[in-house]
Amino acid sequence: MTGAVLYGAPAPGLVDIPAGAVQVSPLIPGSQDLAAMADGSVERAVVLAPGGVIERDYVLAQALRVLKPGAPLLAFAPKDKGGGRLRKALEAFGCTVGEDARRHHRFCQTVRPAAPARLAEAVAAGAPRLSPGLGVWTQPGVFSWDRVDPGSARLMGVLPALVGRGADLGCGLGLLAQRVLASPAVTALGCIDIDRRAVECARRNLDDPRVEVAWADVRQGPARGDLDFVVMNPPFHDGGVEDKALGVAFVTKAAAMLRRGGVCWLVANRHLPYEQALSAAFESYAVRDDGQGYKVIEARR
Asked: Fewer CB within 10 A of the end CB, N or C, for the chain?
């Protein structure tokens, strides 16, 4: 029996987190997998609910599934990111819900009903699946889970055949990595993502002995200094808030992973100011493609 689980990383002081709570968010490397926990094995759950409807219902359904009957659940979210819809979502599972608002969030308190409704449907809707359109394994909640990201598509359209050992930082489902691996001159490719769901899908999508997929925060990884190339579509949102420093950290890490003369190919939204970081970390860089709101940059170490 697990005492309590915590899904997400709430701001300090926003909620009381039970002592010893087990982290179960897929966006925190090293956390446990809520979907792998046994039915009725948890005594309390605290959930910072995701904003996407399918993902949110999947997480709430999994939390209710693992709670023992009568155990408390606190679910909350920012008012402008799904908080106003939490009560109805929980009521649809058969919960009786108390609600309050503070610090721009909505908080819903309930207990696990003896016989919750439609848990199986919500779990099935949010589970990993093979996408006929994409031709890869994916899961709601993963970045660009149901379509090819237009920035990544732009990068794939101009990326030359690469050579040697490289890395894909923030690999997602592995679509960019598939393009890289089309070059037989690529001898090894390390794929890294902070989202466990993306990593699990990428491992299925990249069935290639040259690939190693790791669940990790790129910013905290080792600076190898020996790679021939890095490819990336750097994230620029953290917790739903635009954070240009996140992309800058990816640029700095990419340079630290490359050997002298190594190349980094990246795509970014045109408005993102990465040029100063590129000038500081690389010997040279050039824009190789610019259109539809994106810029593709080649940078040499």
From this structure: N
